[in-house]
Amino acid sequence: MKEFSYTVQDALGIHARPAGLLVKEAAKFPCEITLKCGEKKGNAKRIMNVMAMGVKKDNEVTVVCEGDQEEEAAAALEAFFKENL
Amino acid sequence: MKVLSGKAAFKGVAIGKIREFGEKKVEVNRTSVSDVEAEIARFEAARDTAASQLGVLYEKAVAEVGEENAAIFEVHQMMLEDEDYLDGIKGMIRDEQLNAEYAVSVTGQNFSEIFAAMDDDYMKERAADVKDISARVVRILAGVEEGGAAMEEPSILVAEDLAPSETLQLDRSKVLAFVTRKGSTNSHTAILARTMNIPALVMVSEAEHVDGLMGIVDGKEGKLIVEPDEETLKDYRDKLEAQKKEQELLNSLKGKPSVTKDGRKINLYANIGGVEDVEAVLANDAEGIGLFRSEFLYLQSNDYPSEEQQFEAYKAVAEKMGGKRVIIRTLDIGADKQIDYFELDKEENPALGYRAVRICLNKREVFKTQLRALCRASAYGRIAIMVPMIISVWEVQTVKEILEKIKEELREEGREVGEIEFGIMIETPASVIIADELAKEVDFFSIGTNDLTQYTLAIDRQNAKLDMFYNAHHPAILRMIKMVVDAAHKEGIWAGICGELGADTTLTEEFVNMGVDELSVSPGMVLPVRNKVVNM
Fold first, then answer.
1. Same structural domain for residues B427 and B290?
2. Nearest CA to CA, how far is A24 from chain B (Å)?
3. pLDDT, average across residues B404-417
4. Which pLDDT tens digit goes with each residue over B247-289?
5. What is the CATH number of the domain that holds B308?
6. Distance, in angstroms, between A65 CA and closest chain B CA?
7. B424 part of a folded domain
8. What is the spatial distance between Cα B254 and Cα B246, in angstroms, rounded to a whole number?
9. Which among B374, B129, B56 is positioned nearest to A19, based on CA atoms?
10. Cα–Cα distance between B395 and B384 in angstroms, integer?
């Protein structure tokens, strides 16, 4: 298992467009990828899940990657968050 | 004959058959199916069709409104691939032996309720997205054509209001005019009408049951005339004829330089308020953008727009304009333009208060975000930055220092920064009087005549009682313009006008004679002003 945390900087939080990009990025890896934010949990490969979490600016998100290529997935997603959110 | 009134959103006359733009509703019944696998296959085929329709819409939207605004259609496509959504639908078909139409409709409803219940306005709007994609799949399953109007001939389109996805699907060559029962002069339809250069009316609440009738749209008076009598019809046919002649004359000026008979050239630019206006700028053959009001980015969102969002918008405009100059005015809010999240205090005298560059120099982080976005966009076109409400030299120097630091920062990050012209708005009497000093600091001046007139004459234009004192051509204003132009030329920089006065064709000749280098007007006024220039 590989995980990292990130505090969202984007003023709108994880809104539709970045949620879409995030799902696309997550879909590149075979492992399971879970987003956690406070009490809420969601599957990073499912757009409705990600959007329904309603992650806002300044929320801390923990991304957990488990399974094949978890290292690569975590590194790629960490870079994605820094770049887009 | 019936005369219905509303609000004019774009001028012009149109005569033709009225067509109602209807969202086609599909009646969904709950029925049992015996072959569930066949029903699932039917659903999957419909979903694939929906996805490819959205793909086409996305491509069309990218071309017409830019990638940023088109992204919503890509998100719609992804929603259609969402496993939870699909599992919900397939589960209902399989476990309860229900028909696909019903399963899609109920699942769509369930998901949209999740979004509707969120405490975030932006996310609440996403509820409509889920409903929208579900309705699309249901339509395909039921074999119903997409909503729209059956327009065999060019017609006057009447609708409640039009969503971006709806206007994108229109065959624009078949629309003579837009009439909406709701909407505002800033609604999507109104903007589209300006872009297409066709008349538009909004808030014509009584425009019901008019489908198929003959109609006249008067975009000047804000009227929709239904089943006009012979006399009215003749009257408007004459107006339409005059309008066509005028438009033909103006169209013949497209591609021609704005040069007077004795060879003096003036740059004719356009004012815009958003990325979507660029189409109108190009259609009217403006030679550049003289005023890009960046406020729209701030007014449209519920919180400070990010650097990335701004960058995308500026880049889109720069790219669409090719190598032509794009002058972007930095944030100009305060006074009559209020934005909640800036949390500005109420002021006794907002026109003389905390606004424009005064806010920017106080909220440095907000200003820096905008400048960073502008500098990054400069790698994609010919960007110029213009700062509003300047009264002192130190303000200009401070902005320049911040700007230089940002350029350095970006280069250190390995980002490309293009050549950026830096200018200021001249819209306060103070800046006119010290224009000679200011001219040493900048690359250009752009005179904002609306504020300059208000401050110089001490007249609030909203106050009707002052009409008798108000004179748009007051000699004080005209002399000030001359002073500014002279001060600019003495330092070897250029000066233009981007206020309403710039579009006043009774003054065009005087401006050219004064040596004004540039006039920036609304896109629709570019050709009328050019007509004036080439004939002098």
1. yes
2. 9
3. 96
4. 888 889 999 999 999 999 999 999 998 887 898 899 899 999 9
5. 3.20.20.60
6. 19
7. yes
8. 13
9. B129
10. 18
> B210, B238, B266 — which closes off a domain?
B238
Domain's final residue, options B238, B260, B276: B238
If you average pLDDT over every residue of chain B, what do you get? 89
| Cross-chain Cβ contact B306/A12 below 8 Å | yes
Whichever domain contains B87, its CATH number is 1.10.274.10
pLDDT band, very low/low/confident/very high, at B23 (cuts 50, 70, 90): low
User: Domain count of chain B?
Assistant: 3
Nearest CA in chain A to B304: A11
The pLDDT value given to residue B25? 61
Is the same domain home to B309 and B398?
yes
- Name the residue with tokens 């029903």: B39
Q: How far apart are CA B204 and CA B210, in angstroms?
A: 12
User: Which structural domain range is residue B107 located in?
Assistant: 36-142
B266 and B377 part of one domain: yes
- Which pLDDT value is given to residue B197? 76
Q: Pairing relation of β-strands B325-329 and B7-10?
A: unpaired
Q: Are residues B312 and B453 in the same domain?
A: yes
Q: Distance, in angstroms, between A31 CA and closest chain B CA?
A: 16
User: What pLDDT, in 10s, does the model give residues B183-235?
Assistant: 776 566 776 777 677 899 999 999 888 888 999 999 989 999 999 999 999 99
Residues of B in contact with A84 (CB under 8 A): 308
Residues B194 and B328 in one domain: no
Pairing, β A60-66 against β A2-7: antiparallel
Cβ contacts of B130 on chain A, cutoff 8 Å: 48
Distance CA B269, CA B519 (A): 6
> Does one domain contain both B152 and B138?
no
Contacts of A18 in chain B (CB under 8 A): none
In this structure, what token pair is assigned to residue B190?
A: 């109104």
pLDDT of residue B415: 94
Supply the pLDDT for residue B293: 92
User: Into which CATH architecture does domain A2-84 fall?
Assistant: 2-Layer Sandwich (3.30)
User: Which structure tokens are listed for B215?
Assistant: 């109609």
Please indicate, yes or no, if residue B243 is contained in any of the structural domains.
no
Name the catalytic one among A3, A6, A15, A84.
Answer: A15
Q: Examine the domain organization and report whether B70 and B14 are in the same domain.
A: no
Say yes or no for a CB contact (<8 Å) between A17 and B301.
Answer: no
* B122 shares a domain with B175: no
Q: What is the pLDDT of residue A54?
A: 81
Structure tokens at B355: 């606004």
Average pLDDT of the segment spanning B108-114? 85
- Percent of chain B past pLDDT 90, that is, above it, reads 57
CA-to-CA separations, A82 to A6, B306, B475, in angstroms, rounded: 8, 13, 56
- The predicted model gives B503-510 an average pLDDT of 94
Q: Catalytic positions of B, please? A: 188, 498
